Amino acid sequence: MTQYAVTADDADVYLSFAAELADSVRPIVLSYFRTPLDVVAKSDASPVTIADRAVELRLRESIEARFPEHGIIGEEIGAKPGGAFTWIVDPIDGTKSFISGFPLFGTLIALSYQQQPFCGLIDIPFTGERWMAKPSVARFGDGLARTSACESVADASFYTTSPDMFRKGEMEPFERLSRVARMRRFGGDCYIYGLLASGHCDIILETGLQPYDYMALVPIVQGAGGCITDWEGCPLSIHSQGRILATATPRLHAEALALIKR
C-alpha cells in the first residue's frame, strides 16, 4: 500500500473541502440541466457546453482561494502547476448524458498527492447521491460503501458506459470479458463506479479515459474494498493511459485480467 506523508486529519480536511465544492456547484449544474444549450464539439469530437465551463470556473476559483499553492487539472480549462498536491476536476462527467436529458451524470473531484490518487468524490446532482473516499475508507451518504463479495466473472454483473468507446484491438478483450459475465449493462459514466463501490455491480471495463475521468474513482473503489487498475494490472496515476478495469474483489480482478490478456 502506498504510504502518504500526510495524516488522516489532513485527508478529512481535504475531503470536507471537496464536499463544499460539490455543494457549491450542484445548483449551477441543475440550473442548466434539461434547458436549451449550445453544444460545441471539442478537438476530440466530445461535446462541451456553457454548463461545463461555468462549473469548472467555480471549482477552480474556490480551490485557488483556499489552497493557492495546489495544482489544478480540469477537463475544460487545462492545468495549473502546483506542488505535491493537485486537484483534478471534471465538472460534468457524462456530458452526452447531460445534454440528452439523462440524469446519471456527475461531478468528479479528486486530490492527488505526488501524482497518486489520494481523495475522491463522485456527486450525482440530479439524484443527490454522493460517494466520498480517503485512503482505505469510502462512504456513500452517511454510511460506509462496500463492494460485493463476487469472486467469479461468471457470477458478475458487468458494466461499461458504451461499447462505442472501444477501439480496434480493444473490442476483442471487451467481448471476451463481458460475454462471460452473468449480465452486462451499458451507460452511466461515473455513476457505475459508485454502484460498484456500493455492491450493486461487480466489473467495469472502460478505455480512453483521462485523469479527470478516473482519478476520483480510484480512492472510492479501493476504499470500498474493490480493485481498480489499468488493463495490465498496474496502479493508476495521472500518467496512466486510460484503460480502466474495476472489480469488486481481488480474486475477481485477477480472473478479469486473465481474460483481457488471453
Radius of gyration: 17 Å
- Biggest sheet character: 8 strands, mixed
Proportion of beta-strand residues: 25-35%
The CATH superfamily of the largest domain is: Fructose-1,6-Bisphosphatase, subunit A, domain 1
Under CATH, the topology of the largest domain is which? Fructose-1,6-Bisphosphatase, Chain A, domain 1
- Rough outline: globular
Extended strand count: 15
**Total number of domains:** 2
Distance between the termini: 28 Å
Number of separate helices: 8
Mean pLDDT: 94
Q: Which sequence of strands runs across the widest sheet?
A: 4-3-5-6-7-8-9-10
The CATH class of the largest domain is Alpha Beta
Query: Helix/strand-derived class?
Result: alpha+beta
- Low-pLDDT stretches: none
Residues in helices, as a percent range: 25-40%
N to C succession of SSEs = HEEHEEEHEEEEEEHEHEHHEEH
Write the layout of secondary structure elements.
Layout (H helix, E strand, L loop, with lengths): L7 H25 L7 E2 L5 E2 L1 H17 L4 E4 L3 E3 L4 E9 L1 H5 L6 E8 L2 E9 L4 E6 L2 E4 L2 E2 L12 E4 L10 H10 L2 E4 L4 H7 L5 E4 L4 H4 L2 H7 L3 E3 L14 E4 L2 H12 L1
Parallel strand pairs: 3-5, 11-12, 11-13
Antiparallel strand pairs: 1-2, 3-4, 5-6, 6-7, 7-8, 8-9, 9-10, 13-15, 14-15
Cofactor: Mg(2+)
Protein name: Histidinol-phosphatase
Keywords: Amino-acid biosynthesis, Histidine biosynthesis, Hydrolase, Magnesium, Metal-binding
